[in-house]
Amino acid sequence: GAFSEVRPAFDGKPLSMVLVIQMFMLLSGALIIIITKTNPASISKNEVFRSGMIAIVAVYGIAWMAETMFGAHMTEIKGVLGEMVKEYPWAYAIVLLLVSKFVNSQAAALAAIVPVALAIGVYPAYIVASAPAC
């Protein structure tokens, strides 16, 4: 953030900005419910809320599955994809497309494959240019 010195520090390390944003989002939601005097029980009965929660669970489930699968097989993936992508840099876009279709999530595919690509030495311009392949 703009004022990182304001964030609390634990063991000499400032609190993650992601966690700070999540805390403020939760606080904002709680304040909206309190100020507008909304019945919290009625929120979960709303169709928009239900659809949103289903989408969140689906995306987190896919991302979790992808992280688990790629985390367990990272050395094999780096070996196989690394050789192919080093010889044919354009193949990174195909790999990204296939993984995106496999996990059914563009964000999960990018989160899983970009670190692998960086680790095996794919030129960052190829990584950025291939993002629309998802």
TrEMBL record:
Residues spanning the signal sequence: none
InterPro entries: Anaer_Dcu_memb_transpt
Gene Ontology CC annotations of this record: plasma membrane
Bilayer topology annotation: Multi-pass membrane protein
Key words of the record: Cell inner membrane, Cell membrane, Membrane, Transmembrane, Transmembrane helix, Transport
Transmembrane residue ranges: 15-36, 48-66, 107-129
Pfam family, one: DcuA_DcuB
Compartmental location: Cell inner membrane
GO MF annotations, alphabetized: C4-dicarboxylate transmembrane transporter activity
Keyword Acyltransferase applies: no
Family the entry assigns: Belongs to the DcuA/DcuB transporter (TC 2.A.13.1) family.
Protein name as annotated: Anaerobic C4-dicarboxylate transporter
Biological source species: Pyxidicoccus fallax
